[in-house]
Amino acid sequence: MTNIAVFASGYGSNLQALIDYQKKHGFGNGKIVLVFSNNADSFALERAKKHEIDAKTFNPQSYGSRKEYDNAIDFMLEQNRIDLIVLAGYMLLLGPTLINKYKNRIINIHPALLPSFKGTRGIKDAFDYGVKVTGVTVHFVDEGLDSGPIILQEAVIVEQGQTIEEIEENIHAAEHKIYPLAVKYFCEGRILLKGRKVFIKK
Length: 202
Ligand code: GAR
Hints:
Elements: E1 2-7, H1 13-24, E2 30-37, H2 43-50, E3 54-57, H3 66-79, E4 84-87, H4 96-101, E5 106-110, H5 122-129, E6 133-140, E7 150-157, H6 164-187, E8 191-194, E9 197-200
Parallel strand pairs: 1-2, 1-4, 2-3, 4-5
Antiparallel strand pairs: 5-6, 6-7, 8-9
Helix pairs in contact: 1-6
């Protein structure tokens, strides 16, 4: 059994894609058992409740330090026996304790082709730079910013004259396609890590 926690801060469309995939195809022995947000207003929490998934939110402001906040998250993950943390638009950095404890068991989706356009504005930064090809990246989370081993990538072509909204739409479609696949590969034990290179077992 792979117990999955999805962390989201905002709209939660990636969470929705994961829920839809789970309903339609399943994640093998994996199951989303928990949705967590740092933001009580995140629509991801509503999506979780609608699908009868345990939804939790802790306000970072109510904790004395980031360490205390991470400890609360750690305790929640232990209580729910979480094996895999899926960051889906989670806009807070996780602290080193959690990252080390869940090493190679935290994955993130980024709306650009890493290592280009790291950070919180991947789509806009790529658009402003004038790239002709952008895309999305699923990667393991390490101590750095968007720097962990790459699991899957999908390219998105930027057509001449496209608006940022049109590109955003294509980016989200690519995300919703590859994130569930990465979760499935993880749950099937098909992701092999050699150094920083990831191999997907056929
Ligand atoms: C997604 O585009 C995701 O790649 C991005 O936030 C969006 C969340 O959308 N994450 C980052 O930029 C992380 N650096 P969603 O809430 O609709 O899933």
